[in-house]
Design brief:
Helix 5 (152-162) crosses helix 6. The chain is of the alpha/beta class and 360 residues long. It is built from 13 helices and 16 strands. The chain has helices spanning 2-10, 39-42, 69-76, 143-147, 152-162, 180-191, 206-216, 232-238, 252-258, 282-286, 297-303, 308-323, 340-348; strands spanning 29-33, 43-47, 57-66, 87-88, 94-100, 112-115, 126-130, 134-137, 171-174, 195-200, 220-223, 244-247, 266-269, 291-294, 332-336, 355-359. The strands form three sheets. Strands 3, 5, 6, 7, 8, 15 and 16 form a seven-stranded mixed beta sheet that branches. A six-stranded parallel beta sheet has the order 11-10-9-12-13-14, sandwiched between helices. Strands 2-1-4 form a three-stranded antiparallel beta sheet. It is globular and about 65 Å long. Strand 9, helix 6 (180-191) and strand 10 (195-200) form a beta-alpha-beta unit. The longest helix has 16 residues, at 308-323. Bound molecules: NADP nicotinamide-adenine-dinucleotide phosphate.
């Protein structure tokens, strides 16, 4: 574990990339970047060399891996942690174990694994990783759920659990509600009897999006513009004002969302899609004593590296929701690896409303 902690301090936990092919079987392929820049321009699909299997290593065949905003920022060079270059893109995904080193006890061929930390480099067909960088997940959940489990549902789960004690009937407000995290928040909250007010950007096909989020369990879906309208009062006739606000946008929409928090409510910022700061009216501090907090799943995992039980019980709770049909994979588009450019471009466009998932 000390080795893991030292590596964590250095940045993303990815094994070095070797790009010569090995002869033994057809070489694995991966999306490699040698410099930071716009992902469609700097990523290239290349043959990779699989490192020799060490005693504590695991050889994994990747099955599916999503493209998340953090992956884009990492490749652009603007994320909080960066992989040493050259690097394989992707921090999330699910793979199947092909073989394990002599000292690997917790995994065996056929198991499904997901990354334990950011920056593993999941956009590859195969790879050899140290056992400590992988987590076993059950094989009885859909592959798309497993591929998207380690980041967004975990983030949603922690934000609902760790900041404000919430009881059935309480409410939560969130922006970016159609994001992967937002969809997980809606479903996890619904399963716990917590009401959600979901803010999205206006768009031509808004009714379709509203219908989709309501079908997931959203109680209210509103646009950013509606946050300022008197109609908001109607919502609070049937549900209490939120005790928790979840913000992944920033800028004006966040300021407006904050106005609806209960006194002593907490707003957790976990993303900044609008790339604008959060502005808070002083009255929110003085007269309502609101609290502003932040959350980063990567930090939570690192802080709990010695407490595997917390991580295991969260994964277990999420898998149970999946099995009960209460937590589905995000709306997504499955894209074969060779069409990665199309997927990258779609993932960076506004109003796509569909997580791009690379299939290997
Ligand atoms: N802190 C953490 O631990 C953590 C963990 C997971 C994710 N995140 C962050 O959470 C955010 C969502 O991630 P995700 O994977 O769930 O996203 P996603 O599924 O890829 O969806 C992106 C979301 O961002 C919205 N968006 C994009 N540009 C926007 C803008 N200028 N203004 C308002 N909304 C905008 C999109 O809305 P439209 O449909 O309107 O375009 C969509 O709802 C990202 O910032 C990500 O980095 C943080």
């Amino acid at each position: 574990m000390q080795r893991a902690a030292a590596r964590a301090l250095r940045g993303a936990r990815s094994p070095p990339v070797r790009m010569r092919s090995v002869a033994a079987r057809s070489p694995p392929r991966g999306l490699v970047y040698e410099r930071h820049g716009e992902p469609p321009a700097v990523l290239q699909l290349k043959d990779l060399e699989v490192a020799e299997l060490g005693d504590s290593d695991v050889h994994v065949k990747m099955l599916a891996a999503p493209i998340n905003p953090a992956d884009i920022n990492m490749i652009q060079g603007s994320y909080a942690i960066l992989s040493p270059l050259p690097a394989v893109g992707g921090s999330e995904g699910v793979g199947e174990v092909l073989e394990v080193g002599r000292r690997v006890a917790a995994l065996r061929p056929g198991d499904w694994v997901i990354p334990a930390d950011s920056g593993l480099g999941t956009w590859r067909t195969r790879g050899v990783f140290p056992e400590e960088l992988l987590l076993k997940v059950p094989r009885d959940i859909p592959v798309l759920c497993a591929a998207t489990l380690s980041v967004n549902p975990c983030t949603a789960y922690r934000m609902l659990a760790d900041f404000q004690p919430l009881a059935p009937g309480d409410s939560v407000i969130q922006n970016g509600a159609n994001s992967g995290v937002g969809q997980a928040v809606i479903q996890i909250a619904k399963a716990s009897g917590i009401k959600t007010i979901n803010v999205v950007r206006d768009r031509p096909d808004l009714p379709k999006l509203v219908e989709r989020l309501m079908a997931l369990g959203a109680d209210h879906v509103i646009t950013e513009e509606m946050l300022r309208k008197p109609e908001m009062k109607e919502i609070f006739k049937s549900i209490p004002k939120p005790r928790l606000a979840l913000n992944c946008v920033g800028g004006k929409s966040t300021t407006e969302m904050l106005r609806h928090l209960q006194p002593k409510g907490i707003m957790v910022t976990y993303g900044g899609m609008a790339k604008q700061p959060v502005t808070v009216p002083v009255s929110a501090f003085i007269f309502r004593d609101v609290q502003l907090r932040g959350f980063w799943m990567t930090q939570w995992k690192r802080d709990h590296a010695q407490d595997q039980q917390s991580l295991a019980s969260m994964i277990d709770a999420l898998c149970q929701l999946i099995r009960r049909g209460q937590l589905a994979a995000p709306a997504c588009t499955e894209v074969p690896l060779q069409d990665y450019k199309v997927a990258l471009e779609a993932s960076m466009k506004p109003f796509t409303s569909s997580k791009q998932i690379l299939l290997f």
